[in-house]
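Record 1 of the preview.
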Amino acid sequence: MNKYRIAVTWEMCGYIDVESDTLEEAMQKVKDDPDDFSLPVENDYVDGSFGLSTDDVEEMRMICNFYGF
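->
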C-alpha cells in the first residue's frame, strides 16, 4: 500500500482588537488591509470546515509535488 501527501484545509475563528470610531470603520480596516493585523492568539476550529484543498487530482499532484506517482 502506498502513502500519499494530501493537501487539506480548515477554518479557524478568533477575535482581534481594531481601533476605530465605528464598527463599520473597524470592519472596513480589516477588509482593506488584512495583512496589517496579526492572527489571533486564541482561536477555535470551525466545525465541519476540514476537507481536501482541491477535488482535482492533477491540481493535487501539483500542490503536493508528487508527479510520476
